[in-house]
Amino acid sequence: MKKIVRIATVVLALSMSLSIVAGCKKDKKDDGKLKVGISIPTLQEERWARDKDTMEKACQDAGIEFVSNVADLDAQKQKAQCENMISEGIDVLILAPHDAAAAAAIVEDAAASGVKVISYDRLITATDKLDIYLSFDNVKVGELQGEYFVNNVDKGNIVILSGDPEDNNAKLFKEGAMNKLQPKIDSGDYVVLNEQACQDWKAEEAMKHVEAALNKSTDIVGVLAPNDGTAGGSIQALNKEGLAGSVVVTGQDAELAAAQRIMAGEQSMTVFKDTRELGKEAIKIAQDMFAEKEIKTDGQVVSNGVKDVPSVLLTPVSVDADNLKSVLIDSGYLKEADVMK
Ligand code: GAL
Fold first, then answer.
1. Furthest CA-CA distance within the chain
2. Tell me: the pLDDT tens digits for 262-314?
3. 253-275: per-residue pLDDT in tens?
4. pLDDT in tens, 170-188
């Protein structure tokens, strides 16, 4: 018995000293060099590949050590990947959560290890340990979609789609869009044939929901699609009825395929969020956090349910066939030869 107690004491002492080492394991910080961890939810949408590339390039240019992972739409996988990065000794974690609430556990783990977290593009909810939120004004994104919609759809049958229910942005986009659409629904100008969320932002989900609406009536005048992927799925469904081009379809992300559809007259608009700026800003903030400099937020906060999180929000831009060249091509975001293919 005594022996067992002794062994238990040794194990306990050992694990305590290990956890103390883990608690102040800032080996990287000790060498005075910043190491950044980057966690991206998916590469399914073109934008996330751009975010990843931009951040990696910004790290390379600044001589910052980094490690990056893609969670492939899997919250568990994202947690495991982030935990690995934390134990590898990163100082700052740039985390674009697949699941807003599930990612709270990652933030708590990071905080316990002295790792700062930047909630990247999507807000992490349900934790008071989050350091900063860096994104675009996402209600404004929805408002730009809604504004375009009401300016171009007078009355008739419409479809309202939203993004993944676990993504906080999806709620904000819809809130913004409904600020504009709701009065037209209330007045009876718009009749909503189908209103659905698209799981994991999948184009096939959007296609299915638009098909369901088309089964009720092919007399549809507008589809509020929350991003370019779901716009593409919606247009595929409309195409089957020969309706692509005669129905207003919104979007977001300025993907190449969307720009091509806009110039071909199939998609009406997209919202440009310059991921080059967002990615660079993330690395700048990581550097400032590491140097313990104050992050300039101009007092801006966004509530994540339990905390008013200091926030840096960039400005989104509405793009249609009229300004696509000046906004997307002249800025070098897309190449004219690719868009016009
Ligand atoms: C949102 C993001 C959008 C879009 C979407 C699908 O959170 O803000 O830009 O990419 O996810 O991944």
1. 84
2. 999 999 999 999 999 999 999 999 999 999 999 999 999 999 999 999 999 99
3. 999 999 999 999 999 999 999 99
4. 999 999 999 999 999 999 9
Q: What is the pTM of this model?
A: 0.91
CATH architecture, domain defined by 139-273+319-339: 3-Layer(aba) Sandwich (3.40)
121/94 Cα distance (integer angstroms): 10
Query: Which protein residue has the closest C-alpha to ligand 1 atom 9?
Result: 253
Which atom from ligand 1 is nearest to the alpha carbon of 252?
9
Buried-exposed string 163-185: b where 16+ CB fall within 10 A, e elsewhere:
bbebbbbbbbbbebbbebbeebe
How far does the centroid of ligand 1 lie from the alpha carbon of residue 35, in Å? 26
The two three-digit tokens of residue 291, written as one number: 């140097």
Q: Does domain 33-130+274-314 have CATH number 3.20.20.70?
A: no
Which residues sit with their C-beta closer than 6 Å to ligand 1?
Answer: 45, 47, 121-122, 163, 167, 169, 201, 227, 252-253
Domain with CATH 3.40.50.2300 in the chain: 33-130+274-314, 139-273+319-339
Q: Which atom of ligand 1 is nearest to 273's Cα? A: 9
> What is the best residue among 39, 40, 45, 98 to mutate for testing ligand 1's pocket, by most ligand atoms within 8 Å of CB?
45
